[in-house]
């Protein structure tokens, strides 16, 4: 049954008003009713009647527009279920373009969008009068009507331009060629008007004029970019979006576009006149030209420069800088093996490319070049090169340069490893001074930490001589109560670990800095893995002293961690316990006793994560094999907790253990489990 326009308007208006309510008791029934009306013939004519009545409440009209727009999406196509009749659609099309006089901007935009949606489906075949009506409407003198018609003209053009089927493209080409001259003149007219009003009009009229200029330019842009097959054959059509859609048509504009963008963005020409969005557009234009595949040059070109021409050398240097920064992007575009760069830039540039593409048979030539640049000595003389780098480190004053030199020193130390020992005396003496001087420069301190990491690895057990400087550095870098830890923690932990790995024996000072560990475990950060490696390092280095001093606190931290940690974190905790039991079975079981019931329970209940179960069995295997009396007392304790006989509980555990043996992948752990279970055979149970 069709809705009668006059009688239904009042009812629909009432329900729409209720649908704008904040009270859900009023809102929900209204939404349900509107949903039922969506497929009712005449409903959209009533909505049109409501949202074009400017005397009604703005919120109600806004809602009417939205329901109308949703209806187009669902019911406008002829093949849609509950499709609108052709008669009603014809009436609606006519009603939509009768008056372009909507006073509210947001509603005007929504109306323009819904007209464009109808146009996408019906223009030009079922709606031939749309474009002629818009063209006539944008000519009217009334400012509001002219703006609203232009807004609709833009949305219709934008929508029609986005259609991709061949037949639709042909229709848009025909439309573009028919109205292009008019669109050009429209833009020229509004641009001229805007420039006239800039000097004489009020702010409101200038803004209004600028809006119309922008809308007419947007219309022109859509017609230009999407309305021509060979746009470069029509000089009126040359605009910037061609770069993306028609790169070859844009070629004549490349130089002028780059000169324009560079001058406004990078020189004093732009001072005082540029603004953020303009700069972004200029940068986008430069980027699109540089990255456009159609403009990629030939790989082989020969770039000889007169060494007396300083300007040409500077340009060449800038080009090499750009090529180095974009090494990975230019992989297919530059034949680097044929490159002949400047002396000053050569090492930096090769440094960028060496891991990308560099033939091994060119390396002797590279080493020769490096020797010449450092001094006339040959690079194979490690002492000379190290001395030169150390002298450079002392001479330079810029923080950034010191960091670069330290990085190179670190690389050299890492590469030659223990062969560095005879030459590091001077560096070892200088680093404490540099550390003190860099108190305000945390990034330089990070570079010092990295150098120390490689230095300790190179010195091995001899690094013990560095402890008076090294241990306070580790202490500061890993102390979360000290502000610098934000920058230094990651490298500080790495240095701590390397120091432990190369320590010949524990010292009281090395033992003391473990006080920093408890707060680090509370952080539960991405550095947790390194923390566990450090803990294991202490266990292997000096289990008795370490466990007696720190195991109680460590066990408390672990119990807290196990409540909220990931599966991988649980495994790391259990591995520490396992290592403690491996190195010192009696003390390990004593110190980590609070964790063992949890392990026992995990085995009995058949922990579902194989990697966790495997670690549980590893821990329990150590206890069973190496500390039988402790296992007996643990079994007794668990029998009370489970309210079972000890024999029954032991039987259940063995059954689960044998069942889950396949969870154990490491041969060492499989052997341990086998031995642990076999150790039960001599018992009289």
UniProtKB/TrEMBL annotation:
Location, primary (coarse class): nucleus
One function term, GO molecular function aspect: small GTPase binding
Organism domain of life: Eukaryota
Lineage: Eukaryota, Metazoa, Chordata, Craniata, Vertebrata
GO cellular component terms, A-Z: cytosol; nuclear envelope
UniProt-listed Pfam families: IBN_N (PF03810), TPR_IPO11 (PF25758)
GO biological process, one term: protein import into nucleus
Keywords recorded for this protein, A-Z: Nucleus, Transport
Domain Importin N-terminal intervals: 30-102
Matches recorded under InterPro entries: ARM-like, ARM-type_fold, Importin-beta_N, TPR_IPO7/11-like
Protein name, entry field: Importin-11
Family listed: Belongs to the importin beta family.
Keyword rRNA processing: no
Protein location: Nucleus
Keyword rRNA processing: no
């Amino acid at each position: 049954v069709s809705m009668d326009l006059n009688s239904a308007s009042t009812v629909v208006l009432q329900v729409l008003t209720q649908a704008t309510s904040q009270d859900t008791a009023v809102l929900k029934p209204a939404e349900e009713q509107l949903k039922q009306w969506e497929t009712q013939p005449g409903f959209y004519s009533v909505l049109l009647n409501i949202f074009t009545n400017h005397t009604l409440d703005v919120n109600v009209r806004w809602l009417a527009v939205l329901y109308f727009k949703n209806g187009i999406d669902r019911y406008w196509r002829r093949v849609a279920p509950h499709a609108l009749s052709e008669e009603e659609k014809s009436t609606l099309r006519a009603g939509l373009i009768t008056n372009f006089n909507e006073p509210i901007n947001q509603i005007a935009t929504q109306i323009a969008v819904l007209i464009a949606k109808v146009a996408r489906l019906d223009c030009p075949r079922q709606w031939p009068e749309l474009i002629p009506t818009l063209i006539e409407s944008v000519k009217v003198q009334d400012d509001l009507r002219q703006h609203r018609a232009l807004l609709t003209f833009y949305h219709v053009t934008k929508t029609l331009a986005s259609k991709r089927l061949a037949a639709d493209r042909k229709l848009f080409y025909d439309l573009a060629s028919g109205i292009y001259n008019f669109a050009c003149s429209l833009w020229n007219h509004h641009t001229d008007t805007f420039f006239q009003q800039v000097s004489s009009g009020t702010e409101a009229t200038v803004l209004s004029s600028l809006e119309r200029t922008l809308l007419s330019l947007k219309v022109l842009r859509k017609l230009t970019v999407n309305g021509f097959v060979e746009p470069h054959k029509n000089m009126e059509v040359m605009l910037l979006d061609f770069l993306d859609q028609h790169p070859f048509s844009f070629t004549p504009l490349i130089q002028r576009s780059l000169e324009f963008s560079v001058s406004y963005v990078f020189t004093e020409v732009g001072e005082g006149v540029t603004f953020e969005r303009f700069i972004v557009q200029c940068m986008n234009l430069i980027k699109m030209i540089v990255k456009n595949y159609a403009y990629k040059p030939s790989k082989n070109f020969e770039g000889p420069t007169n060494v007396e021409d300083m300007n040409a050398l500077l340009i060449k240097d800038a080009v090499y800088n750009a090529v180095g920064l974009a090494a990975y992007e230019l992989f297919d575009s530059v034949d680097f093996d044929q490159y002949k760069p400047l002396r000053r830039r050569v090492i930096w540039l090769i440094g960028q490319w060496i891991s990308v593409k560099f033939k091994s048979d060119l390396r002797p030539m590279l080493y020769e070049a490096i020797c010449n640049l450092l001094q006339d000595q040959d690079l194979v003389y490690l002492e000379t090169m190290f001395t030169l780098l150390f002298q450079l480190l002392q001479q330079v004053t810029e923080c950034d340069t010191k960091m670069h030199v330290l990085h190179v020193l670190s690389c050299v130390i890492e590469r030659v490893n223990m062969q560095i020992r005879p030459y590091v005396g001077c560096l070892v003496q200088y680093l404490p001074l540099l550390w003190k001087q860099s108190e305000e420069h945390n990034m330089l301190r990070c570079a010092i930490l990295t150098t120390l990491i490689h230095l300790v690895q190179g010195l091995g057990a001899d690094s013990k001589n560095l402890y008076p400087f090294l241990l306070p550095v580790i202490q500061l870098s890993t102390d979360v109560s000290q502000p610098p830890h934000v920058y230094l923690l990651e490298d500080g932990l790495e240095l701590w670990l390397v120091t432990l790995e190369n320590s010949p024996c524990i010292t009281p000072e090395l033992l003391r800095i473990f006080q920093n560990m408890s707060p680090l475990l509370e952080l539960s950060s991405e550095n947790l893995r390194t923390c566990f490696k450090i803990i294991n390092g202490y266990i292997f280095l000096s289990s008795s002293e370490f466990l007696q001093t720190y195991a109680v606190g460590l066990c408390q931290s672990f119990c807290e961690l196990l409540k909220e940690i990931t599966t991988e974190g649980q495994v790391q905790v259990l591995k520490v316990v396992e290592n403690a039991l491996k190195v010192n079975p009696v003390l390990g079981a004593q110190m980590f006793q609070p964790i063992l019931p949890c392990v026992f329970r995990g085995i009995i209940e058949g922990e579902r994560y194989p990697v966790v179960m495997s670690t549980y069995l590893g821990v329990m295997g150590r206890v069973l094999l190496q500390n039988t009396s402790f296992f007996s007392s643990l079994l007794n304790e668990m029998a009370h907790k489970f309210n079972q006989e000890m024999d029954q509980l032991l039987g259940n555990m063995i059954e689960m253990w044998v069942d889950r043996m396949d969870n154990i992948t490491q041969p060492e752990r499989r052997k341990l489990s086998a031995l642990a279970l076999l150790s039960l055979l001599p018992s009289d149970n």
